Amino acid sequence: MKTAFLFFFFLISVCGWSQDDVKATLEDTTLSKNVLQKFPNADFYEDVARVYSDGKWGYINKQGEIVLPFIYLEASDFNEGLAAVKLNSKMGFIDKQGKTIIPFVYNYAGKFWNQFAIVADEKGKYSFVNKKGDLLTAFVFDNVESFNDFGFANIKISNKWGVVNTAGKLIVPAISKYPVDLRGDKGSVATEKETYFVNGKGQKIK
């Protein structure tokens, strides 16, 4: 306590701070500690954490500062610099300054992974969006999975699975009973008649 008093005396006498400056600093420090204490289990991604208070989501940093206000009905963790959040009835994407990067037009939006995020329209159909807000395909899929590190994503149409690439090209048509999980040059397709492997071009291989 004596050390803290001497420190703030130093700020006033040597650094030229006013008593109001010191008081504000103390209040900010207390606020930061209180915020961190209120959310002890906050998980930080890219140096910020989404936290929930009074029915809304916001974001804090590791210093306990509220960096984005509690205004969002839904919120994802930040990944690749963006987070999916919900305002009113639609979802879009923001950066760490709270700026809208991709408009609030989706019924569902997931976090970015390998430069694309999963989005859905009002009919419950899925597609992918890039960071410019461009859709990869029309909303035609009944279900999708995020793009893997090889640039492929599982898609589902009429209860069958297929694969698209990051250009939106259908590499494997929706014919498999299970996700194809195409990684590099090998994925497994299981139809009603047979199970076989395909390469990165969707061609059968042994």
Descriptive account of the structure:
It is built from 2 helices and 17 strands. By secondary structure, it is an alpha+beta fold. 16% of the residues lie in helices and 38% in strands. The relative contact order is 0.07. The radius of gyration is 24 Å and the shape is elongated. A hairpin with a 4-residue loop joins strand 13 (160-165) and strand 14 (170-176). The strands form 5 sheets. A 4-stranded antiparallel beta sheet has the order 4-5-6-7, with no helix packed on it. A 4-stranded antiparallel beta sheet has the order 11-12-13-14, with no helix packed on it.
Keywords summarizing the entry:
16% helix; 2 helices; 206 residues; 17 strands; four-stranded antiparallel sheet; elongated
Listing every helix as H and every strand as E from the N terminus to the C terminus, the arrangement reads HHEEEEEEEEEEEEEEEEE
Q: How far is the N terminus from the C terminus?
A: 74 Å
Share of helical residues: 10-25%
| Backbone shape | elongated
Low-confidence stretches: 1-29
Mean pLDDT: 88
Q: Biggest sheet: strands side by side, in what order? A: 4-5-6-7
Structural class: alpha+beta
Largest beta-sheet details: 4 strands, antiparallel
Number of strands: 17
Helical stretch count?
2
Task: Return Rg in Å.
Answer: 24 Å
Q: DSSP strand (E) fraction?
A: 35-45%
